[in-house]
Each structure stands twice: as C-alpha cells, then as structure tokens.
C-alpha cells in the first residue's frame, strides 16, 4: 500500500490538472474576412439583382461561369473560367508553396485548423446563408451538412491527425527479427480536387483540410453550379493560412467547365473527385495519361431498410430526414425505402402525413422545410422518373406543399413525393434520383430485402432499422456498399475517423478517416537495422558469390528453421543451419563444373 499510495496521488493530481487546463480557453487568433459582397442586406439595386434566366438544354461552355440563386433566380454575378494554361500556372504556384509547407510543424498545422474552427463557429449563419443562396438549401440543412461535418473533421484532425501521419512500426517477420520495419508518410505534392455543388462549403474544406494537414498543397475546382460561394469560402482559407505564416499560393480555388477540370487532372499528383459516374469515367481516362492516383466518390442509391420490430414514429422522422437530405442537394440521401409488410401500411400513412405538412419555398424568405433544386432543369428529370413509375403501375399517395411561389418559379422547386407500388423495373428504383422522392417497397423476409438492396449498380451506403440490433447488423453485413448505419441514417459520415466511399458505380478509394488522410501521402516502407551498429547484415557464407556446393541445402534448412510448423522440426533444421555455417567452405558449384 505504501508503494501504490504516491502513484494514486500523482494520478489524481494529473487528472485534476488536465481538467483545470481544459477550463482555460485556448488563445486562437481571429481572422477578418470581407463578406460585404455576399450578404443579402437589402441594398441591392435593380441593376445588380435582376432575375437570371438560364438557357434551356445543355449550357454552353464559355469563358464565364454565370451564378444565380436557384430559389429566386437573382443574379449573383459571374466568375472567370480558368483556361488550361491558367490551371497549369495555379498548380505550378501551389507546387512551389508546397515545398516550403512540407517541412512545417504539426503545431503550425493545428494552429491553422483552430483558426478555421473558431471562424466557422463564430460565423455559422454567414456560411450557411452563402450556401443557401448558391444552392437553394435551407439553413438547417446547411448547418447539418456544411457546418457540423466540417467542424467534426477539423476536431478529428486536431485530436488524431498527427498520430496517423507519424511513422507506424510493423512486425518484421521471422527472417528479419534483427530489423525494424516501419511505414512512413510523406506529402504527395499537389492534391487536385473536383467537387460537386451539393455541399459547397464542406466539399471545398474536406479535401483541403486533409491535403494541407498532411503537408500538401491543394488546387480545387468547384462546380460551375456553386462557384459564387466557393470563391467566398476561399477567402476564409486564405485568411487562416496567412495568420499562421503559410506560404502564399498553398491553396487555390479555380472555376470553369470540362476543359478546366481536364487540365487540373493532367497537372496534379493526385485527384479527388466527387460527382457522377459518367464524369468519373472521363476523369479516370485522363488520369491514366499521367498514372496519378484517384479517389472517386460517385453516385448513390442508398437503401433504407425498416424491419417490423422498430419504434415507428422515430424511424419515420429519420426516414424523412434521409429523404429530404436527397432533395437535389445530397449524393448520399436515402433513395430506396424497403419496409416490412407487417408495418408497411402504418409506415406509409405516417410518412404521407408528415410529407403533407412539409412546406417548400425560397429558404431565406421564410420558414420552409425544403428549399430549391440547385441544378437547372433537374425538376423536369425528377418528374420524368415519377411519370415512368406511374406508367408501370406505381401510385402517388402524398406530396408536400409549395409556399408562396410565383408561377414562373415552379421549375426550381419539387415537392417531396411519396410513391408506393414500386418495383425494380422502374427507373426510379435504379437510377440516382438526387431529389425528394420517397419510393416505398414492401418485403417479407430478411433474405428478400438483402437481395433487393443489392440489386443496384450503386453501392455507397445503407441504413438498416430493427429492434434487434444483431439482426440489423446481420442484414447490413450482407449489403454490398461502402458505409452502413445501424438504426440511424448517415451517422457514419459524422464519425470522421471512418473512411467514406463506395463500390461499383459509387466509386472507389476513400476520403475521410485514417485511410483518407493517408491517401494524400506517399506511403513508404522502410527497413533498418534494429541493433545498429552491433548487428549488421551479412550474407551467410554458403550463399555468398560464388555460391558453395551446399548452398541449396543451407536454404532448405533455413526455410524450415524459420517457418516449420513443428517446433522439433524447426530445432533440427536450425541445428543443420549452424552445422553448415560452421563447416569449412566447400568448393563453389561453378568450380566443380570447371574440374
């Protein structure tokens, strides 16, 4: 007891001191970011706030990216589309800056993250309003998908990022016991990212944070549908980098169309792409010219499975959140709903009741549950999917309500729609919807729903609900997808220690988590002498050149001594190895042949 008492006192004192230190607020510098030109403050004149009417059909690719609010069609201005030569110049500047940043300390990199985190927390409303204006999403959706996810990623990097980028020691095996084996992680150089419009803030910060924290530079092409917000978010990054004395040009944001993206793929050391499978194939083909690594997070058609033994009201609320997260603004939304036949009628009734209470309208002009569709003419695509399902026997049983919209604004909005009597012959159950459509299909057994859920070209995520957690886990384990949530929806992405990505047409490679962070690195395997300089590598005499006559006998014995299944056989083989080494040298094989 006399021995343990001082240790106990020291342990308690340590815990108390750590707790007291936590109460002391960290000293984090504040940054100033000019937001005067992105705020809707009522001072806009007719000249700079006119209604924008985009062309129907395929948008021509010019030297300008036109920006407007999807919910109101107010014109926001334009950005210059970067030419291929300009893209190469951006990458060249980033490459020079990265050479300096590669030697920066993790302490400085964490300071950069803390400055960003402080700004984000202090300016949540501003960040969400900018996202809402550029994509049409509600403030709540922006908070959930933009703010919380980014803060979670920063917090994880602060807590664990350095640990996973330090050398990792591995076992050296039987034949290399005298060696020390490790994996080292070095920056790749310039990480390129081509990101989608659904989360303009997080989709910029997500690859940038991983790239910069791992010692890389980043050049990010934002979507032509969310360029206005992307350039404002770039100011936040620039201000934070300047506050820690980072080299100029470490991070770049570029805008443009296809040729801009192709030039980026041709110039960087790795590409991260978030978007459609079709564009992903084009990027993969371009990346093959320089053989750079790629990470693809493509489309999703996530299955939302509801067993009969659940708490129905709770799951209905989660289902609605999953469905509306797919309201043209989220590639990971729940798009296929499979409900056990015993609770199917009650589930449909409760979903319909909830959907009919949903209001749709311009998100910044009032309290609306759902905002606008971001991409031009996407509402027409959604209606075509609905019509195809109706023609094949499906039925609409509930729709949400429009707010106070003018007749000329209906094309930018699509009400949440509940459809029953669906099956897999309908396009609605096969292609990525990217919209607030809730197709509900019944199932009678776990085996049936597993087969249905796997009947898809996509494999991004799934959600499985059951009052028996083991049952839910068993179902999820048999689904061919990259992420799975048990009795929840999309919770995997909020655990930023986990990798994120899919299989099949949903892509390959992972971002987020340890795997995503290390994917920004050159992974180098290193073996060194464990007891240098006392024990060094020496080639055993029998296999030194010219090899001796008993060289193969030596190798046979050595292999059995190292890997034999029976300890006695290994000891006997080891004795043979020692005996061969201790014998006087025999004639080399080639010498015997010369005789």
Task: Write a structural description.
The protein has 595 residues and is α/β, with parallel strands linked by helices. It has 19 helices and 22 strands. The strands form 6 sheets. A 7-stranded mixed sheet has the order 13-15-16-11-10-18-19, with helices on both faces. Strand 8 (270-274), helix 9 and strand 9 (294-297) form a beta-alpha-beta unit.
**Pairing-aware structural class of the strands and helices?**
alpha/beta
| Rg (C-alpha, Å) | 30 Å
Total of helices: 19
Averaged pLDDT: 90
Helix content: 40-55%
Short structural description:
By secondary structure, this protein is of the alpha/beta class. It is built from 19 helices and 22 strands. The chain has a seven-stranded mixed β-sheet, with helices on both faces. A six-stranded mixed β-sheet has the order 7-6-5-8-9-21, sandwiched between helices. A three-stranded antiparallel β-sheet has the order 3-4-22, with no helix packed on it.
